[in-house]
Amino acid sequence: MVFSTYIIYKAILVLAVFAITLLVATYSTYAERKIAAFLQDRIGPDRAGPFGILQPLADAVKMFMKEEMIPSLSNKWLFILGPSLAMLTACLTGVVIPWGTSLFIGGQEFSLQITDLNIGVLYLFSVVSMGVYGIMIGGWASNNKYSLLGGIRASSQMISYEVAMGLSIIALIMVTGTLSMKEIAAQQHGWHWNVLVQPLGCLIFIICAFAETNRAPFDLPECETELVGGYHTEYSSMKLGFFLFAEYINMFISSAVISTFYFGGYNMPFIGRWIHDPNMLAVLGVVFLFVKISFFIFLFMWVRWTLPRFRYDQLMNLGWKVLIPLSILNIVITGAVSMREEIMMFFSK
Amino acid sequence: MQALTNRSKVVSKKEMTFMERMYLPAIFGGMMITLSHFFRRKPTIKYPEQKREYSGVFRGQHVLKRDEKGAERCTACGLCAVACPAEAITMTAAERKPGEENLYREEKYAAKYEINMLRCIFCGDCEEACPKEAIFLTDRQVDVYGKRKNFVYGKDILVESKENPIDLSKRQTPEVKEFKKQQEFAHNQTFDKRIKK
């Protein structure tokens, strides 16, 4: 491929992924309100446009028009850095996710993944673990007890659950034998979804994803019954909007990661029997991936409006005493199963 | 001790089984419950577009009726104002001039008639007190305004128009009219009917 074509194509892809991420996050706010309403026998926002479809627009206008306040005793630079960092790290993760297979136009291959890092999983984890800094800095810079408590809770919660998350992924990597997201997605062609091989790991990963995105029942950092607003108590206007928006982007990315790791990514069972055109398959793959992502976003919201919030000690109990031992057990079982012949040989001697 | 009801339950603090301690079946069950609500019919009534059907005896905004010839029935006797428990009604009486016979039914009429809709409790006592069958409560709702002064309704709003008389048949059913013919409600009948008796 010519270098200039490559650059232009990648630029377009980056912009597209960025735009789609923002769009999905925007409409997640609408979906959240609608789903919350439906689960509670209400009908939700329906005034802005047909079925309230323009509600996110109205929300954005409201957010921008609100008075912007920075507490006089806060650390101003860090106060601004908090939401910026939250937003930045949320947007960075979409880079390594394979949105589909490749398009073939004019004999050239256009991959639907922005970049196929050979350590994609590690990149993902490093960026996700950076995400806590936005909340922590924001909570600390506000110079408010509630914000600080929210920030502390966020950091300890995210650090605790990252351990279990990483351990659950190790078992997955033992099965797939690669750290490249593209490889992991490609290995799950047909119905070889990793969730069938790693059901326990998948469950742990999903629970940790809930905790990492600070969604209910793990929304202790912003737990409004105890901490007013948690880490974003002092924030107003679009800086608050960025914090909330980053949460929805994180949710979208987490759903994409869950789908890619465990639910076959862009693969759909048996579709290859009827459709053979690779371009058509690539486009359909993107559609399938988004169907899966939508389901997981729905799951996030469904759980939020079903389960009550954890108490803080219960949260730590679950993280350290349940999920981490379980994920280690999962690693041991996975290792034992993959080395079953050697073990059999050892005992039969 | 004897139990007052048979609804009391003995609380048991038994150890949870392994399945219960996993919580996942319970979580799944809870999610199924919320999902069943997702598809349930919503009881919301989208108010300005949809309106709830009111009961036949709903008491809403008042109307000052005209008689068959289109003259105002109200004679500004003030009985409604006396009957009003919320003191929402005020009026000023005036004498009918020659030539105004088609405007006002009797020699005295209300030059000004005001009901403060913020004070009104829609009890219907004014309607019961009225000897001329002039004031009635209807099934219409009082509008919403931003300023308090707009809630003081004058004759321009209260008196029905000659072209579109307000239909009272929902509340003033034949049974109600029959009931009002009893002797103790004689004051409630129109002037002409009493003369005939």
Structure commentary:
The complex is a heterodimer of chains A (about 350) and B (about 200). Chain A is an all-alpha fold and about 350 residues long. Helices cover about 70% and strands about 0% of the residues of chain A. Chain A contains 13 helices and two strands; from the N terminus they run αααββαααααααααα. Chain A has a two-stranded antiparallel sheet. In chain A, helix 8 packs antiparallel against helix 12. Chain A is globular. The termini of chain A are far apart. Chain B is an alpha+beta fold and about 200 residues long. Chain B has a domain of about 130 residues: Alpha-Beta Plaits (2-Layer Sandwich). A three-stranded antiparallel beta sheet of chain B has the order 2-3-5. In chain B, strands 1-4 form a two-stranded antiparallel sheet. Chain B starts with 17 loop residues before the first helix and ends with a helix. In chain B, about 15% of the residues are buried. The chains are: A mainly alpha (about 350), B alpha+beta (about 200). At the A-B interface, helix 1 of A face helix 2 of B.
Short characterization:
The complex is a heterodimer of chains A (349) and B (197). By secondary structure, chain A is mainly alpha-helical.
In terms of quaternary structure, what is this?
A: heterodimer
Query: Approximately what portion of the residues of chain A adopt beta-strand conformation?
Result: under 5%
The percent range for helix content of chain B is 10-25%
| Strand percent estimate of chain B | 5-15%
Q: Record the strand order, biggest sheet of chain B.
A: 2-3-5
Overall mean pLDDT score of chain B? 83
For this entry, give a set of tags.
heterodimer; A: mainly alpha; two-stranded antiparallel sheet; B: 197 residues; alpha+beta; Alpha-Beta Plaits; three-stranded antiparallel β-sheet; 7 helices; elongated
